[in-house]
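Section 3.1: Structural characterization of target chains.
Under the original work plan, the team committed to producing a structural model for every single-chain target entering the pipeline before any wet-lab resources were allocated. The record below documents one such target. The sequence was received from the expression subgroup and is listed exactly as submitted; it comprises 452 residues.
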Amino acid sequence: MPATTTAAARAATARTATSGARVPRMTVTGSTLVIAGPPAGAAASRPARTPRGPYRRLFARPGTRGFTAGNLLARLPMGMFGVSAVMMIAGQRGSYALAGAVTATGLAATALVAPWTARLVDRHGQARIAVPATLIAVLGSLSLIVCVRTGAPAWTLFASYAATATTPNIGGMSRARWTHLLRDSPAAHHTAMSFEQAADELCFMLGPVLAAFLCGAVFPEAGTLAGAALLLTGMLVFTSCRATQPPVSAAPRQGSPLRALGPLLPLFLVTGVVFGSMEITSIAHLDARGLGASSGLVLALQAAGSCAAGLLYGTLRPRSLKACVGALAVVMTLPWAAAATGSLPALGCALLLAGMATAPTMVTAMSRVHALTPEGRLNEGMTLAVTAIFAGIAAGSACAGLVVEHVGPTAAYAVPAAAALIALATLAPGRFVRRASDRSRVVRTAAAHDPQ
């Protein structure tokens, strides 16, 4: 080999050694140039690049983006149907009393039907039950439109809207998928539950706004039609993601979700009272200030605060349920104090802070639901919790309405503050200890210290 070639090979070898680059190694043996590749398996031994941030890691998992997209599409109408029905019925029939009675009947029907639908989902699988149940709900919405437009008797409106009670709890089914996928990673599960709570707040914040726009700017039935289309489309996308669907167990189902969650359901009930009374009180207070149509923007601050706090909470270490409810009890006094000052900016800031305390409370409480619900009955357990919240919202709305009428809108802010204190009182020591006689298997999915 010529001297110049040998010198060049040695120089290349030296540069390779000092640079540390993963390129073929060259050396000279006598008159032979030897090129050595990297050791077998060296490329495979490199650590895979892990996405930064808990939410990027969460949605880097296969299949999660698909079912989340369907989940969000199907969840948005949950904040649309009530407003759309009220505006459509009141606009066509000229009676808010009839519109309110129809929607109240729908809520009552949902409280009765939803746990049974969830039980069927747990027993037979999400896709097998959710799609036909959604079709029945969509047909109920379409029937409501036809009955309103054709001047059908009032009882047909009640029957049509009651049929929408078969709408599956899409938020519960999505949480069940996360619980199945992240059963070995409690910290990632906490992040997923925080995302789900933020999605709830976002959809219930945007849903009424979209419904009001469609019913007012397009035609009265547009909100219901759009909601039905979004619900059906989102549910089909969600259920088409079969790889992430929790498997259905053929083993006998032991334990009762109602019995397991019995001590926790009063907390959800009273928390619903906080939500319902705060909304009615704020609407009445802002209407008395002459805001009227602009009150929705102020109320959106509470939902925006909860949405932001939910996303932030997902990046932090979980707190105890008692600490979260204690913080909720403290901040729920702020709107009462702000309303007493008569300052609208102060009330807006107080509502924002109040919203920021609700998301951590709901995320942590739902984690307790996951931990206490017997295996194979998670959808039913979460639906029971949601039903308790809806019942509390109805009771809180009625209670706040009475206080507003007889005392005034400012004093009515005492109702959510008192309800938050009662919620804290429900967390007495030992109320969540399962009795020794209950031998149902428990799925534990939420630990404070577990790496993702």
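Confidence is low (pLDDT under 50) at residues 11-23, 40-45, 430-452.
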